[in-house]
Write a structure and sequence with these properties.
With 98 residues, the protein is α/β, with parallel strands linked by helices. It is built from 2 helices and 3 strands; from the N terminus they run ββαβα. The chain has a 3-stranded parallel sheet with strand order 2-1-3, with helices on one face. The longest helix is centred in the C-terminal third of the chain and has 10 residues. It is globular. The two termini are 23 Å apart.
Length: 98
């Protein structure tokens, strides 16, 4: 096998006191447009050379963490926005890490 296999014990932990910082700033209003968070990995094989443009909707928030250890912070920022849906745009490794 030519690729590195990562164990979950090596992934960054979000349990570093960030939980209280990740509470949504605004509660979701029933019937309102759902807030969508996107984790976008520009280094993913199919995303290379692509540009993700979600400026069209004020209800879509995109995070592009450059490294795996930036994922907990990116997820916390999306949680603070009170997202209803999480979309992962990347490969199997991105999905696993998220």
């Amino acid at each position: 096998m030519s690729r590195t296999i990562y164990e979950f014990t090596e992934l960054p932990a979000a349990s570093n006191g960030m939980e209280s910082e990740c509470e949504p700033d605004k509660p979701h209003i029933p019937g309102a447009m759902p807030r969508v968070g996107v984790i976008y990995n520009p280094r993913s094989h199919h995303n290379k050379g692509q540009d993700l443009d979600c400026e069209v909707s004020p209800h879509v928030f995109v995070a592009q963490p450059g490294e795996r250890d930036q994922l907990p912070t990116a997820l916390c920022e999306l949680a603070k926005r009170g997202i209803d849906l999480l979309v992962i745009n990347g490969g199997d490794g991105t999905v696993r890490d998220v």
